[in-house]
Amino acid sequence: MISRTTIKRAAVAGATSLASVLAFVSPADAATNLRGIEPFNTDKLLMTICNGRNDWPTYWWLNIQTGEVMEDGLHGIPGESIPYPWERFEGYCSYPQSSSWTWTGAEKQVSNTLVNCSSGSQLSQNLQLNGSTTSTTTNSVTGSAKIEWGIIEKVLSVEAGASYTRSWSYAKSSGWSTTTGITVPPKRVGWMALRPLMRTVRSNPVFHVTRYSWGAPGTHKQVDSYSWRGRGYNEITSYGAYYDAVGNVLNPDGTPKGQYVARDRAVNSSDRC
Fold this sequence. Notes:
Oligomer: single chain
Distance between the termini: 79 Å
Shape: rod-shaped
Radius of gyration: 26 Å
Strand content: 35-45%
Helix content: under 10%
Number of strands: 18
Order of helices and strands: HEEHEEEEEEEEEHEEEEEEE
């Protein structure tokens, strides 16, 4: 049996930037969905090997019985037999858009309050509205380790969210400000609120196999293939493994799109009327 100590033996090898492979991103539906094909958790597999790291290619050991995955410190260099049930593979990840949808976010106050202490007249005034746009990333597999969140954000904005670059706040969260008028009834406190229109872009990562190896039965040699487990397909995904990139839908002026609404309440002792 291969131990973790054996697997982690270092070997010197260069790494090529992920940028060199971003020119072409296969759609997620062009890859083979491993869910239900393998006996182990393929969602966890994809979240482990497609964790945002920008070194290319990456090298891995796989236990085909349990689905345990460990980094291959030998960088794919043949140097020992590969005893069953361990196999090894190498390749790189891409993060194409799988789906996208918009939804209404939680309402939030986006202005200071305007107090009308008058008993009989309305108070009309312009208010400054301001806030910050949103950019968040989540993933589907609880307890996923070693995810490079900063790199994932940049990669998702380039690959999965390219078509929304100018109308979406993801990966470029910033402050915004605008002015609008409000009319507050007598003995009321008014403010402006925003029900923001949000966009989620989902990416099922795809792993592109450049080499896959296993031990030849009865020998100390390894058998090399250029597809996943020698099955003829070299792009794999798992439909339960995904990243969700979330940001505000933006107006042309950079302010968040949504429903801006005037709110008010009755004055109380804290308003000092």
